[in-house]
Amino acid sequence: MSVIRSKLKEVMENHDPKLSIRRLAKEINYHFDSVRRMYKDEMVQYPRDLLLKLCLYFNVQPGQLIGIEMDEESDWTIDASMDYQEDVNDKEIDNNREL
Fold this sequence. Notes:
Layout: E1 3-6, H1 8-15, H2 21-28, H3 32-39, H4 48-58, H5 62-65, E2 66-69
Antiparallel strand pairs: 1-2
């Protein structure tokens, strides 16, 4: 199964190998435990404000902090039988009708 993974550890090591989680949390003014969970890839959800602070601090895009780890068994093909079919309710109202 493919999953989203944090790449904060790699970004930190590339930026400054001596940068600690505690120092980073202090410099971006964010909860230490949240930064630690992201560093260790233990987060279930990524707070937008944390992502923004990290992006600005490291001068990176969000995609450089998180990414999809593809599983070899995953099949990302789209089933052709699921083609879009127009629903009667989706049709535009006749322009000649009076409102």
